[in-house]
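task queued by scheduler; priority normal; single chain, no ligands, no partner chains; default sampling; output format set to structure tokens
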Amino acid sequence: MHLDTQPHRVALKPYGDLLSGACGPDAVASLRSAERSWRLLLLRALIDAADGTPTATLASLDDGWQLLTRAWEADPEPVERLLLYPTVGTWAAYALRRVRGAVTGDSPLWVELGRLHAVAASAAVLAGLDFRTSVPVRDGWVVLPMLGGARVAQTDRWGTVEVSSEAGAVMVGDVRRDGPDWSPLRELSADGCTLVLDDLDPHRGLRAPQPPHPLDTADRWSTLFAEAWELLARHDPEGARAASCGLSSVVPRPRAERHRPNSASSGDAFGAVLVSEPDDAEQFAATLVHEFQHNKLSAFMHLFTLYRDGGDARFYAPWRDDPRPLGGLLQGVYAFFGVARFWRHRQGPTAQFEYALWRAQTLRALHGIRGADRLTDLGRELVDELTGRLTAWQDEPVDPRARDAAHLAAADHHATWRAHHVRTDPDEVKRAAAAYAARSGPVRLPPRGKDTIAAARPERGLDTRAVLLRRLLDDPEGLRALSAAPGAVVEGARAEDVALLTGDVDGARQRFEARVRAGGAAPDAWVGLGLALRSERHAAAQVLLTRPEFVMAVHAELGGGDPVHLASSFRAP
């Protein structure tokens, strides 16, 4: 196979498009070309690192490489598509980590290394070669990447089976590839795009291997994909063409809670989107945009350095419950820029809520990292470009109800995140508590310079009230009906959350305050109290929503007391 030895170059316009967060097919073609070289280097690194490692009864890895090369020489085009198939990258990266001892697994190492023979067998089938080779069996399955798989007669969890092709008749053990016992990978098709729906490959999950799990809802996925793609192509045809050039597969996951989809991607698996079964086509489209943004930036970062490694600084990520390192924030702002851009083209209260929320929250995250000293000049250029675009969108009109809901969700997430993760100077806490107890007048809030960030596990998702807000925008009466047992419908929700969002501000305040006074109250109760007080235009709201961690710490130092009076006593430094 031909391995490029010349440096990869990205033309000026595609380069600028990539920095802007919105790029067309030319930019994606540049990334695919680079990913092809990256993938071949990864495969060669694996073979070299595993030199001399026992492969049980399988042939050597060099034999697998030779079959792969022979297939490429016979018909390069389909073999090139296979080499860029996401699970080939995920497997090779995982196997290399296993060889180097960076990760462990429950499978024998020869099973992971022997996967090269399954890749080579797929290539040989695609190229129409006659061949014969042995491949590993995992969990009673043999899966050929990008093609499909078969259950085989196997009593042990690990084993080997022969794959062969003669005059176009492909056999996997006793299973014919064109027979009823073969499980082909199905496709998601729309006008202008076809993706593999990969529910079989053991390396589809982006991290550790997992058994195949054939879907029984493939028809619904197909319908939703066609509808989602129509939305993308109608509102952003250039972006849709770019995605059709870059995406290869969708990895389906089980249905998640409504308005809480799970999705993921990996720099090892360019072109893959892992996603829980969508609520609807609109959510599916937004998720495809989100994860394709991650795909693009990961590939871009294989070519260019956006930040220097090292450092333990952590930052606020408005889409996460936990503090994030700089690299994670760059991925997040790039992805959610794309999400905001998608919702900018949509109408309706929920769509307008998503647009108002993510344009503001992504800009907030960008402001949080603009001064990070580990950003390279190129990283700052990326941050500045995204900041400029999002700043221009902030004053675009949206539905007032959606706008107010987005403001509440943003304030809630930021304040609750601070309450969980920001640790304030204990000496400042003691001074403030003493000043408050002495009743000597307003208590000055200390500057934030001594604050530290600590990871803590929230007892519920920081997006809980945001999920309730989405339900309120979808179905106001349905949300009011949740007040008896909201946690049974939205995980983590309480009756006081529903009361707050449906207009019973006084009832919500009483419940939040009672929880705080009872002692040991969770951060969500303190922030909920602040949100209720904000609705009443109470003076205590501002400090509870901007410095909740400090008020909580002083309250604990005092051993309790009136939380509203305490919060009202603070003044800015």
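post-processing summary
- The chain has a mean pLDDT of 94.
- The chain has 23 helices and 16 strands.
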